[in-house]
């Protein structure tokens, strides 16, 4: 599977997502957009957030060195915001999709683009 083309086609090319990545559940990166400078530690903290949502809600999450406020977390989605920027992190049975939006992008369209990629991955048994 060409993971980078999935991020490009389903996230970046929509214009609704500024940066994106796909990880496997153990934290290994499958692909991330060239402009996405998320660290391994930040990605690991995001993945752990699915298991400890209360701590995530209390402490927020750092992505690319910026602290984001967590406004929603459940077993399949984490939502973070900072001013007019934010992210959606979705979990499928085998992968984690991170979609970041920045100034000028509406959160709902970013979520929809990420959700469409998640649906596609689930259709492929990921």
Automatic annotation (TrEMBL):
Coiled coil: none annotated. This is Profilin. One of its GO terms (cellular component) is cell cortex. It comes from Steinernema carpocapsae. It is found in: Cytoplasm, Cytoskeleton. The keyword Cytoplasm applies. Belongs to the profilin family. SUPFAM superfamilies: Profilin (actin-binding protein). Gene3D superfamilies: Dynein light chain 2a, cytoplasmic.
